[in-house]
Amino acid sequence: MDTTESFEGGCTCRYVRYRMKSRPLFVNCCHCSWCQRETGSAFALNAMIESDRVELLEGEVDLVATPSNSGKGQKIARCPRCRVAVWSHYAGAGDAVKFMRVGTLDEPLRMPPDIHIFTTTKQPWVVFPEGAKVVEEYYKASEYWPKESLERRAVLMGKK
């Protein structure tokens, strides 16, 4: 995996613009009912990346405290003008990791999901591509993430 690759994106009105300065750690496609409700869609597609690898190029974001199924909540970064969500911080990872909304990338096709999670509540018309990694609930990163991402996570958690 090339960590020198970068990706740019932003909100609908283009007030908020950002750059991901490397590939993400992993991309989750979450089919839980909470993500369906929050996005108004069938799933949420989030690219997990270290917060220090995301550069805010233009604008600013409002952090909106939002409940989550875990009960720990999340902070959703939204454009203060068009209110589009550009990333989230989940309680488990804190502010160290941004869960980037892949749909806000200029080229979202460059970041397909690495895994489909919480598929027990997926919409029945969602069909997974052949060979896709699919789990009923969540997973152990050590079983699915590439070695480089696991190493980056260890550094992030101060274990390396």
Describe the structure.
The protein is of the alpha+beta class. The chain has a single domain (7-156), classed as glutathione-dependent formaldehyde- activating enzyme (gfa) (Alpha-Beta Complex). The protein contains three helices and ten strands; from the N terminus they run βββαβββββββαα. It has helices spanning 33-39, 141-144, 147-156; strands at residues 7-10, 17-20, 26-30, 44-50, 54-58, 62-66, 74-78, 85-90, 97-101, 115-117. The chain has a seven-stranded mixed beta sheet. The protein has a three-stranded antiparallel beta sheet with strand order 1-2-5, with no helix packed on it. The longest helix is centred in the last third of the chain and has 10 residues, at 147-156. It is globular, with a radius of gyration of 15 Å. The relative contact order is 0.21. The mean pLDDT is 92.
Keywords:
single chain, 160 residues, alpha+beta, glutathione-dependent formaldehyde- activating enzyme (gfa), 7-stranded mixed sheet, 3-stranded antiparallel sheet, 3 helices, 13% helix
List the helices and strands and how they pair.
Blueprint: E1 7-10, E2 17-20, E3 26-30, H1 33-39, E4 44-50, E5 54-58, E6 62-66, E7 74-78, E8 85-90, E9 97-101, E10 115-117, H2 141-144, H3 147-156
Parallel strand pairs: 3-10
Antiparallel strand pairs: 1-2, 2-5, 3-4, 4-9, 6-7, 7-8, 8-9
Evaluate the radius of gyration: 15 Å
Please identify which CATH superfamily we are dealing with.
glutathione-dependent formaldehyde- activating enzyme (gfa)
Q: Into how many domains do the coordinates divide?
A: 1
Would you count the extended β strands for me?
10
Compute the number of helices: 3
